[in-house]
Amino acid sequence: MPVESGSSAAARQAKQKRKSHSLSIRRTNSTEQERSGLQRDMLEGQDSKLPLSLRSNLLDLFGQIEREFENLYIENLELRREIETLNDRLAAEGQAIEGGDLAKGALKTKASHSTSQLSQKLKTTYKASTSKIVSSFKATTSRAVCQLVREYVGHRDGIWDLSVTRTQPVVLGTASADHSAMLWSIETGKCLLKYMGHQGSVNSIKFHPTEQMVLTASGDQTAHIWRYMVQLPTPQPVADISTPCEDDVDFSDKDEGDGEAEGPNDCPSVRVAATTLRSHQGVVIAADWLVGGKQAVTASWDRAANLYDVETSELVHSLTGHDQELTHCCTHPTQRLVVTSSRDTTFRLWDFRDPSIHSVNVFQGHTDTVTSAVFTVGDNVVSGSDDRTVKVWDLKNMRSPIATIRTDSAINRISVSVTQRIIALPHDNRQVRLFDMSGVRLARLPRSNRQGHRRMVCCSAWSEDNASCNLFSCGFDRQAIGWNINIPALLQEK
């Protein structure tokens, strides 16, 4: 094998340095001759199968992109300096008006007003110049109002799941990675009860359809059924903090409240389950009640879903067939149907309507983990995936989806409203978006450093019968949020 000489190795290192320098975004003010010389050196020193003319054109295009970034960067620096100078002048003039002669107040006010107009113009120009690269983002014209009503804070770790009771008293339930589940007063945001019977992360929470019982799934490889009794506190008036959907959105990565949240001081706790469902060999990631509430289904990382009898806690059926870990399970509100989601990019429909025949149908259409699949009141299933898509399926025709929603971030546990069939999508990028069943985007819930989620949103849940909050969301910022969605205005925008 030929050995490379020292001079040849040094020459190659020099050419590689010139290559990395020529592709750097922050260039020095070099001349066009130096640029072309560097390009020639690169073309001569690279071992490529591309034609020389094509390589030259590519380098020229990259050079143009680089110069455009340079111009934008320099322009932004100059605008920043001008804005800082004007802010200093405004501050100085404000002090002069306070300590100056009253007769000169009108003149100085006029000067300050003109300076303020110039400052605003510069800020507008700065925003416009920095938005050239993201010009594909479109502003909304939605008149719908999405109001943040209440924040439910008290968990010491991220919240995986949440649910709302279907019977009186109406309360909110949350399941957290801090090994606890909490019940909250929707109107006041006060913790009413804390369940501490699990030895691992509580991954899901579902209320019994008719009784005051809760079903929770946990990382301790079990699902618990426990009873609760709560007394709702007196509601407090809610301040009007309505915000138009998609307004005041700040994409800053700034996180707030990273310290441990203060848990509720006077919240009673339950530590013993009425029934424990065992038989899984891995994390139980989700659980739900079958219609009627006499049976429950669990989904686990052991690639199986189990159907249990609630009264005896005995295993009735083990639903196997998925190739990888399960991520979610959901039951139909009026029929004995179960849908399970998995990391194997599929979800399966299990039919228990006929006691003698238990059929299964496999839905294939996603390219990454199916994070959740839920039933609608009609004959539809809505599935969300890490492939950043949501698909609407007809139970009578499983070959292809009837609608596909494409987004810019992975989707977690979705929820579909019962009456208006609006899909709420919780995203990894801290956003919550609303779509209709045909895939038309309706709104994006407001998010900024002052309100909204500051980390990944894990789950959404509709509660249309509630007057104050009809949509809830939770995430890894350790809080749940209650929203009031003006649905008539939302649908009017269609």
Characterise this structure.
Helix content is 22%, strand content 33%. The model is unreliable at 1-5, 17-31, 95-112, 127-144 and 247-263 (pLDDT under 50). The termini are far apart. The strands form 7 sheets. It has a 5-stranded antiparallel beta sheet. A 5-stranded mixed beta sheet has the order 2-3-4-5-10, with no helix packed on it. A 4-stranded antiparallel beta sheet has the order 6-7-8-11, with no helix packed on it. With 494 residues, it is an alpha+beta fold. It is globular. The protein is built from 5 helices and 30 strands.
Strand order of the largest sheet: 9-1-30-29-28
Q: Could you give the distance between the termini?
A: 70 Å
Q: Give the biggest sheet.
A: 5 strands, antiparallel
| Number of DSSP strand runs | 30
Query: Which structural category fits the helices and strands?
Result: alpha+beta
